[in-house]
C-alpha cells in the first residue's frame, strides 16, 4: 500500500492552495507502522537503520513538527489506536494524528520544505500503511468560517 501521496492527490490540494477557497484544513493521519523500519539505502544523518517503524516515523516527526510550527500549523491531538469496531481485519491503524494547517498552501509548503525532504526517508521507512484524510475544521469549531 502506498504511504506517500500521488501527484494527482497533491494536485487536488494545490488546486485549492492560495486561491479564494483556501482556508484552514485538518489533515487526519491514520498511520500503521512496520514492525522494523525498511530504509532504501542508508538513513539520512548517519542514523541506524535498525529501529522499529514507529521510531523511524518519530525521526520524521521531529523534523516535521519544526516545519509545521514555522508554517503556522499545529498538532491538535495524537493518540494510539488499540483497534477498530467496524472494518475488515487489517484496516485499522496504530496512531491517529490530527494536524491543523492555516491553509492548504501551508500544507504544501510543509510537504515541499527543503528541511522535510531528507526526513521523508524516515517516514517511508517507518510506515506500512498511511491514510491522510483532508477535513474541514469541525462543525463544533468556535471559529467563524473563513
Attribute tags:
single chain, 146 residues, alpha+beta, Alpha-Beta Plaits, four-stranded antiparallel β-sheet, 4 strands, 33% helix, globular
Draw up the topology in text.
Blueprint: H1 7-16, E1 25-33, H2 53-70, E2 74-80, E3 95-101, H3 104-112, H4 116-126, E4 127-135
Antiparallel strand pairs: 1-3, 1-4, 2-3
Helix pairs in contact: 2-4
Number-wise, the strands total 4
- What share of residues are in beta strands? 15-25%
Q: Name the CATH class.
A: Alpha Beta
Biggest sheet: strand arrangement: 2-3-1-4
Number of helices: 4
Task: Give, in order, the helices and strands.
Answer: HEHEEHHE
- Please report the distance between the alpha carbons of the first and last residues: 35 Å
Shape: globular
Low-confidence stretches: none
Give the domain tally: 1
Mean pLDDT: 91
As a whole number of angstroms, the C-alpha radius of gyration is: 16 Å
Characterize the biggest β-sheet: 4 strands, antiparallel
Description:
- With about 150 residues, the chain is α+β, with helices and mostly antiparallel strands.
- It has a single domain, classed as 2-Layer Sandwich (Alpha-Beta Plaits).
- Helix content is about 35%, strand content about 20%.
- It has four helices and four strands; from the N terminus they run H-E-H-E-E-H-H-E.
- It has helices spanning about 5-15, 55-70, 105-110, 115-125; strands spanning about 25-35, 75-80, 95-100, 125-135.
- A four-stranded antiparallel sheet has the order 2-3-1-4.
- The chain is globular, with a radius of gyration of 16 Å.
- It starts with 6 loop residues before the first helix and ends in an 11-residue tail after the last strand.
Amino acid at each position: 500500500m502506498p504511504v506517500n501521496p500521488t501527484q494527482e492527490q497533491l494536485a487536488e490540494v494545490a488546486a485549492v492552495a492560495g486561491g479564494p477557497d483556501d482556508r484552514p484544513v485538518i489533515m487526519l493521519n491514520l498511520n500503521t507502522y512496520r514492525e522494523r523500519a525498511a530504509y532504501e539505502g542508508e538513513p539520512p544523518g548517519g542514523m541506524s537503520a535498525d529501529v522499529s517503524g514507529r521510531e523511524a516515523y518519530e525521526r520524521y516527526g521531529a523534523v516535521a513538527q519544526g516545519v509545521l510550527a514555522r508554517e503556522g500549523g499545529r498538532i491538535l491531538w495524537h493518540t494510539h489506536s488499540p483497534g477498530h469496531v467496524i472494518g475488515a481485519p487489517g484496516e485499522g491503524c496504530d496512531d491517529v494524528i490530527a494536524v491543523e494547517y492555516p491553509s492548504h498552501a501551508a500544507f504544501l509548503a510543509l510537504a515541499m520544505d527543503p528541511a522535510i525532504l531528507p526526513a521523508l526517508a524516515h517516514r517511508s521507512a517507518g510506515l506500512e500503511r498511511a491514510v491522510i484524510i483532508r477535513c474541514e475544521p469541525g462543525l463544533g469549531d468556535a471559529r467563524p468560517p473563513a
